[in-house]
Amino acid sequence: MDASNSPSAGALPEKTALIGKIWRGDYPLWFSFWVLNVGAAFGMMFFWVSLGKAVTQSGSALHSLSARLGPALWLLCGGLLFGACCLYLLIAMIGAWRSARRYEGWKIWRWLTFAALIFGLYQFAFFLFALLSSILSSPAAG
Asked: What are the residue ranges of helices labelled H in 1-106?
């Protein structure tokens, strides 16, 4: 492999570079907070509600797919997808925090971003705790 075809040591693949930019807070504060955090969270919430309705609606393609896959495999796939969503949201929150630290405009926006992210992290942790406790206390788990 000659040097012209080999990636340099510092070069990252495009997908990694995108996640890396989010992680480092390289996007402007407004974009990092409103699009990558709030917009993504609402998009994921809409996705999960829609998926839940489609899976439970008798006669839908997803309902029959979940029946064919079986509950264990279906829950594994859903759990992996949900875990990826949670990981993304944590990366996006860290990126927005870092973007706020670099923000040079009105300081109120920096501090409001910090407060919103702390509140969002609290909500996120509370949701995960409630979800895990409901899963662990369900009759199927015992």
From this structure: 14-24, 29-30, 40-56, 61-69, 71-102
pTM for the whole thing?
Answer: 0.77
Q: Do 36 and 92 touch, CB atoms closer than 8 A?
A: yes
Q: Which helix (H) or strand (E) holds 137?
A: helix 107-137
What is the chain's length?
A: 142
Neighbours of 36 (CB within 10 A): 22
CB 102 within 8 A of CB 21: no
Tens of pLDDT, residue by residue, the chain (142 residues) = 444 454 444 554 565 688 999 999 999 999 999 999 999 999 999 998 888 888 888 888 888 887 888 878 878 888 899 999 999 999 999 999 999 999 999 999 999 999 999 999 999 999 989 988 887 887 765 5
